[in-house]
Write a structure and sequence with these properties.
Distance between the termini: 26 Å
Strand order of the largest sheet: 2-1-3-4-5
Structural class: alpha/beta
Radius of gyration: 16 Å
CATH architecture: 3-Layer(aba) Sandwich
CATH superfamily: Flavodoxin domain
Number of domains: 1
């Protein structure tokens, strides 16, 4: 079953490495027959949160917010690509997430974290889980953590070590199972609220 999957990238730094991880997961999703859509805060520069999308009168939301709301409304699930900043998530990712709420409901999410060091951003992934649950898109049990991102992926998003592709295959198989199950359930039944 083809899935529409926004891939939310969290970094806006000038020499960011996360773009490689985003390209990697977008490529793998496309190869598996899905429709991944990269949401890059450098390409979609939202202001610091003042009003959420839902707080604008109908038809008066800024164009970028409306485009994201339309995409999220079509989404079956979300992939979050996060770095680790001081044991937490990057502010650009938090800002990107906080502009919406109901658009995320009943859609699973999964986390690809990365870092320059050995831990692969896992502390950010742990912090991100509670945010995603509160937004109504609970994160799946597995995550994909890529350490030494500067060497682990090429600029065009290919793994330089075999274990990364093997881990990504398991990661995406679980993601597809949950996303497909919830897509099917949403098609059959109206969510309880």
């Amino acid at each position: 079953m083809k899935l529409t999957v926004p891939v939310l990238l969290g970094s806006v730094r000038s020499e960011r490495q996360g773009i490689k991880a985003a390209r990697y997961i977008v490529r793998l999703l496309a190869e598996r027959g899905h429709e991944p859509v990269l949401v890059d805060p450098l390409e979609t520069p939202l202001p610091l949160l003042d009003r959420m999308y839902k707080e604008y009168p109908g038809g008066q939301a800024p164009k970028l917010l409306q485009e994201l709301a339309d995409l999220y409304g079509r989404a079956d699930a979300f992939v979050l690509v996060t770095a680790e900043y001081n044991h937490g998530i990057p502010p650009a990712l938090k800002n990107l997430l906080d502009h919406f709420l109901e658009e995320y409901f009943w859609r699973p999410s999964t986390i690809l974290s990365y870092s320059a060091g050995r831990f692969g951003g896992v502390r950010a992934a742990v912090a991100l889980r509670s945010v995603l649950c509160e937004l109504g898109m609970p994160s799946l049990p597995s995550s994909l953590a890529i350490p030494s991102i500067g060497h682990a992926l090429s600029d065009d998003g290919h793994a330089t070590e075999p274990w990364i592709d093997e881990a990504a295959d398991r990661f995406l198989a679980e993601f597809e199972w949950y996303a497909t199950a919830l897509k099917d359930k949403r098609a059959k039944d109206q969510p309880p609220y």
